[in-house]
TrEMBL record:
GO biological process: DNA replication proofreading; nucleotide-excision repair
SUPFAM superfamilies recorded: GIY-YIG endonuclease, Ribonuclease H-like
Lineage per the UniProt record: Bacteria, Pseudomonadati, Bacteroidota, Chitinophagia, Chitinophagales
Molecular function terms, GO-annotated: 3'-5' exonuclease activity; DNA binding; DNA-directed DNA polymerase activity
Annotated signal peptide: none
Protein name from the UniProt record: DNA polymerase III subunit epsilon
Originating organism: Niastella populi
GO cellular component: cytosol
Length: 456
């Protein structure tokens, strides 16, 4: 038994919008056996452009029953039936959300006539309801009204059933089937062909533009998990509505997938990614020359137009490093902004200032030690490779960190030695460096030190 549903709403997502009209047509696969149609009084006013589109005004719904009043009758009509709609996840998400608010839990099998039409009649230029009805000669009366669109969907379903749609329907609604949870415009075969490997996946819109980049330990499972629930928020609904295709890049390890995801988000700036777009370490180590010619080191917030010598997520990490340089190279705490009181610095512990803050030490002498400190820092920052499994048995994956910064990654033949850094680079792809990637690699080697190969 099918329940063909169409609704009109105050907007495009359930969490912050209301239903203004609903039509449910019960169909036994041969003919219509029952029909329900009603305006619904929304909590919110209907936006003007929606009134123009549907012809439903605020005055028309002012005396209509609320959804909560209709909920018992609607629930009885839908329960135990196959919920059918054109772009079913939109209608279903609205009804599930509003049923839940009224104290009901809607759980039915779903059937999308967009996806079903693609299976039965592949290759049609557009699968919108209006276009399909024109293509098949189905007349729509009262377009953009719940009753008119529901009746058109009934006739579309009947046409599909007459053209051997039943095997596809059984496949769609069988237990555990993923088809009906997919976005309406995403071909199921693209999800089916995804491998069970780590990698990075790309969701594309209708024009092919990448709108989301994600990483996965298992591409098949991760992509499928995006569609296991409809969600009622605007961003969720916009996201699903705009997915038309998937591409992917396999990686041999999860760490490589994490790194590649970060690189691609920075490169492509996809519409529906947000977290890594704004990720930056908060502080940096900077050097500048003061008016007296002394080279000064400072830990400060990251600056847009100045490249830091090194970066830190926490201010205390920066202070820890600069104190180490002060002690090791007899730098002045005041010239490194670790003391701000008036007058000369007040060295303590192992700190020895040779008078630069009082101009007693020659500029060239002090600056030479600052340069020595920076050279030591560059040498102290580690150069190493992370070597792990490759895609094939006769290769290894390799991630190279050079002087504390991410250089690149790739795959090296199993017989190639990893002692020569310059030779190793010929097998690697150079990628842009960022703080997030650096943190990923350092966290990984802390957890798996056996996969780190140091260079002399």
């Amino acid at each position: 038994m099918y329940a063909i549903v169409d609704i009109e709403t105050t907007g495009g997502y359930a969490a912050n919008n209301d239903i203004t009209e609903i039509a449910i047509v019960l169909h036994d696969g041969q003919s219509v056996i029952n029909r329900f149609e009603s305006l619904v009084r929304p909590v919110r006013t209907i936006p003007y452009y929606i009134q123009v589109l549907t012809g439903i005004s605020n005055e028309m719904v002012s005396d209509a029953p609320s959804f909560e009043e209709l909920a018992p009758q609607l629930y009885e009509l839908l329960q135990g039936r196959i919920f059918v709609a054109h772009n079913v996840n939109f209608d279903y998400s609205f009804l599930k959300h509003h049923f839940s608010a009224a104290g009901y839990e809607l759980t039915t099998n779903k059937l999308c006539t967009v996806r079903l039409s693609k299976k039965v009649f592949p290759g049609i230029p557009s699968y919108s309801l209006g276009n399909l009805c024109r293509y098949f000669g189905i007349t729509i009366q009262n377009r953009h009204r719940a009753g008119g669109d529901a009746d058109a969907t009934v006739r579309l379903l009947e046409h599909l059933l007459q053209n051997n749609a039943k095997p596809h329907i059984q496949q769609f609604i069988k237990r555990g089937a993923k088809e009906q949870s997919l976005p309406p415009n995403l071909p199921e075969e693209q999800v089916a062909q995804l491998p069970y490997t780590p990698g990075v996946y790309y969701f594309h819109n209708q024009t092919g533009k990448v709108i989301y980049v994600g990483k996965a330990k298992n591409l098949k499972y991760r992509v499928s998990s995006h569609f296991t629930h409809n969600g009622s928020g605007k961003q969720r609904q916009d996201f699903l509505r705009n997915i038309y295709s998937i591409t992917y890049q396999s990686c041999s390890t999860e760490l490589m997938a994490f790194i590649l995801e970060s690189v691609e988000i920075k490169r492509l700036w996809p519409q529906f990614n947000s977290s890594q777009k704004r990720f930056e370490h908060a502080y940096g180590l900077y050097m500048f020359e003061d008016s007296s010619g002394y080279m000064r080191l400072a830990i400060d917030k990251k600056k847009k137009h100045m490249a830091p010598l090194y970066t830190f997520n926490l201010l205390v990490e920066g202070h820890r490093l600069i104190n180490r340089l002060i002690e090791r190279f007899n730098l002045c705490p005041k010239l490194c902004f670790m003391q701000t009181a008036p007058g000369p610095c007040s060295p303590g512990g192992e700190v020895v200032c040779l008078g630069a803050c009082e101009h007693k030490e020659a500029v060239d002498t002090y600056n030479h030690r600052v340069n020595e400190a920076l050279q030591w820092l560059e040498e102290w920052l580690p150069t190493f490779a992370v070597v792990d499994a490759g895609n094939e048995r006769d290769e290894h994956s390799c991630i190279l960190m050079e002087k504390g910064k991410f250089y690149g990654m790739g795959y090296i033949p199993a017989g190639v030695g990893i002692t020569n850094r310059e030779e190793l680079k010929t097998y690697l792809t150079r990628y842009p460096e960022n703080d997030y990637i650096r943190g990923l690699v350092y966290q990984f080697i802390e957890k798996y030190p056996g996969k780190k190969v140091n260079f002399g």
